[in-house]
Amino acid sequence: xxxxxxxxxxxxxxxxxxxxxxxxxxxxxxxxxxxxxxxxxxxxxxxxxxxxxxxxxxxxxxxxxxxxxxxxxxxxxxxxxxxxxxxxxxxxxxxxxxxxxxxxxxxxxxxxxxxxxxxxxxxxxxxxxxxxxxxxxxxxxxxxxxxxxxxxxxxxxxxxxxxxxxxxxxxxxxxxxxxxxxxxxxxxxxxxxxxxxxxxxxxxxxxxxxxxxxxxxxxxxxxxxxxxxxxxxxxxxxxxxxxxxxxxxxxxxxxxxxxxxxxxxxxxxxxxxxxxxxxxxxxxxxxxxxxxxxxxxxxxxxxxxxxxxxxxxxxxxxxxxxxxxxxxxxxxxxxxxxxxxxxxxxxxxxxxxxxxxxxxxxxxxxxxxxxxxxxxxxxxxxxxxxxxxxxxxxxxxxxxxxxxxxxxxxxxxxxxxxxxxxxxxxxxxxxxxxxxxxxxxxxxxxxxxxxxxxxxxxxxxxxxxxxxxxxxxxxxxxxxxxxxxxxxxxxxxxxxxxxxxxxxxxxxxxxxxxxxxxxxxxxxxxxxxxxxxxxxxxxxxxxxxxxxxxxxxxxxxxxxxxxxxxxxxxxxxxxxxxxxxxxxxxxxxxxxxxxxxxxxxxxxxxxxxxxxxxxxxxxxxxxxxxxxxxxxxxxxxxxxxxxxxxxxxxxxxxxxxxxxxxxxxxxxxxxxxxxxxxxxxxxxxxxxxxxxxxxxxxxxxxxxxxxxxxxxxxxxxxxxxxxxxxxxxxxxxxxxxxxxxxxxxxxxxxxxxxxxxxxxxxxx
Length: 764
Description:
ten-stranded mixed sheet, ABC transporter permease, alpha+beta, six-stranded mixed β-barrel, 53% helix, 20 strands, transmembrane helix, elongated, 19% strand
């Protein structure tokens, strides 16, 4: 069980790593054709994928991106297959299947297609040289052109990024950069052009798929359950053979010999059982995550778990072995099965009904009863916890918390109007629109929106499109271009109580270009570079001083802003000083009733298409992305739940059957004094009923408490949990307990029929 949990968990992460395995470790910015040729001849380089984004335009609410990529880029870096040949000549293009579906036409490689490639209204005929195997509907599509056409379209701004796969399996950043320095030697490529891809972060485990799963904790709990079962079974075996052990002492066997004999028997079972457990574990691990199964990983964990399991068995049998070695010949001759240290009752009369007999039997060996109930109870509790976590993961809650705290639909100013191929287009087009006549401030637009049935509230938020540049890890530089919040004096001062460091003074912030920054990208006193569009159309680049830092989750929890979870926040007057924009409204957030969401979205998109200067974002897009992130975790949690589910049921049946076999003499004695088989059957049914009901109570209470604690901790970190009772697993747990009850009842009935009074008394 422990082995399968480890393999399923690591297999899930290996599946995620498979997305990066074999991809480029570095990207070389602005690489020339001459440098590419030299790089491909280098023995330290496996392949180089070329990519360049040329421009974009809008078509019926969809973003169409024109780009160039070579064959290595698609097959090796993006791992996307295609039908046909990569565009080579100027009139050849490659389209993904989903874009062809969007166009509503059926094409095949070699067909001629009439297309406006730049979104400027100039249509031309192109040869469809290849079709990419992408069929999922999207909010944006790609058009891929040849390198020659890319040169013509981009002009002087054409720049290729060389995604380079090095001939090394190193995954730490230092080793990769050291190897890349050897690869670019004598090529004219400078170190500053080299950036790490996300390869090293994923492969080293710095970035993982989904929610972290506490596998060591689950393994430890499982080991405790397993040790409890081993202890119970072995203790039963020792107590069953007390008379035999006493006889061995009588003929001269020493305590040391008894100890060695009992210990050797326990280790013999371990030596036979552990390989069988590993075989079952590896089968479950492979079936659960075939794409993430790694033989090397399986061998490593098999070795570690074998040692742990052997130690666990020795710990579990320690006390039963000591019981065995301390049995004296006299104790052996008078020992009564399962009597233990029983208390003598002072009652003058006891009603021997099946229920009372069941109760008496449980009470006379409370240790066994507690172990039996705890074993299944804890298994059920862990089952309910894992199932609760898996079923309570709520991507919608996280999307609302991080990005949509006050509404489900956001309308923002387009940063590129029409087409980026338009020579008059600017890199900060949204700032130009906000400066010259903000489309979100038009009363006609507001009137159209408020009239839509289902729109309950419209909230405007100030933000300006800017670029922030800050140091990344391993000496790299990171640039993020996006809409960032601009807050007035009152709003800025409200943020003081959520700052993790620094203080805010609005006037000082405006005077020194002070900004508030997320604590994971800078600290107080750092100077970051901010770029944007100045009022005269030029691009400003200023040094901004960090005056305060905040935790983004704490910000959105206590004092949310739009756009949500920002990397930095600027004062309204600072933005006004840099851009000249007075009406800085950049986002309108629509709060919509749930039953009208689709209708409102359709109406808003129609308005946006007619307007041409605004674009629509919806929470549905974000929920879909978050759901993909959590899917591997949910799958793993459910698989662990199933493993625990089966394990607990089999273990309980095992203990009950061992217990039944050990009590055959007792049943014979009962029959000898006149007890009927129906009475014995009734007694056993009530015993199993007590065990199962006790286990269910522990499962429900323990599972509920642990679920609240675990889900609370996960929600505090990820804000993605809406506690939901796992009804299906709860009903399955109850169903399995009922099945165990009926199976054991049938088993007991069948075995009692086979057992005669004399054979039971003479048994062993």
